[in-house]
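Dataset card, provenance and construction

Sequences and ligand SMILES were collected as paired inputs. For each pair, a complete structure of the chain with the small molecule in place was predicted and serialized as structure tokens. The example below shows a pair involving pyridoxal-5'-phosphate. Curators did not alter the output after generation; any descriptive sentences attached to a record were derived from the structure itself.
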Amino acid sequence: MDKILVTRSSMPAYEEYISEIKELWDSHWLTNMGVKHKQLQKELKEYLGVEGIDLLTNGHMALELSLQALQMEGEVITTPFTFASTTHAIVRNGLKPVFCDIDPVDFTIDVSKIEGLITEKTCAIVPVHVYGNICNVEEIERIAKKHNLKVIYDAAHAFGIEYKGKGIGSFGDVSCFSFHATKVFNTIEGGAVCFKDEAFGRALYGLKNFGIRGTEIVDSVGANAKMNEFCAAMGICNLRHIEEEIAKREVVYKRYVERLQGVAGLQMNPVQKDVKPNYSYFPIVIDEKIFGIDRNGLFDRLAESGIGARKYFYPLANAFDCYKAEYHASETPIALGISECVLTLPMYADLSLEQVDMICDCITKKY
Ligand SMILES: *Cc1c(COP(=O)(O)O)cnc(C)c1O
């Protein structure tokens, strides 16, 4: 029997991609903001419902260059319950991450604990829409306004999500998406920054293109983070099928919920109020005392049946080898507890209901 991996990249039909890239052989224009880049940028702006958007090589550079474009200095309040990229983007800008604990239900930053961490050095908040669970954007906006802080959302998990009818990328000063192969929407590798302030957009554009402003003008110390034409073409194709992609994920999601609801000792994320979700991940939290085995035990049991789950996010960022000298995961006890009990189950559009049933049988079988 074939193994079930935790994720599987969505791809358009081969012919569709080939026909999309055909004109690149006519133009010989492969990168540097070509026609595919421009087209995808325009289509995403509309789809995401945002004022400004720029496309980059990946979600990490989106975060890193956004912080640089905002010319941040000092401390940044963020969550340890995230992918390495979020914390690294902060540290690689010479900024100090200050870790805030998370909400025990949706695992996003606990807004009631943010203000207690603000000092005179705090310049920004970098919250994460974890697994597509959106942060409390209203409360974060209130705190940011009151203390004059920038808000940069890591929206890597949140593609296509709407809150109260508004695109999730339109919240905060900046929202950063990842279009990595494993995400709901992919451009193979890729990312985008959404913003409202045009001056920020200009600064970011400089940073993604060596600071080159004209043929004879270089006005900032930029990097290179331009999305190439082949990646943009993949995005154009995948965007045509995004509604179908999310609808297929919804079917998988509903089957999981149907099968796992009521299983003693398993906690699932509820769909949030006023949110149009994207079903990007399916995390479960295991209470060993009730369920009978712990997270690692369940991970191993699934692996023995050829099912790939993921300990995502474990370890916490504040427990990484590169950060643990300065931080203690015990400072964020809720996040620490969740990171030790959470498992994300296989989730992708083409996962069949038979496969979901197999996974659930494996989870619920009693020894
Ligand atoms: C995927 C991801 C990133 C980084 O995106 P890349 O496109 O892989 O660089 C950042 N933050 C989170 C939460 C992610 O899941």
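Derived descriptions for this record:
Residues 242-364 form a domain with the Aspartate Aminotransferase, domain 1 fold (CATH 3.90.1150.10).
The longest strand covers residues 52-56.
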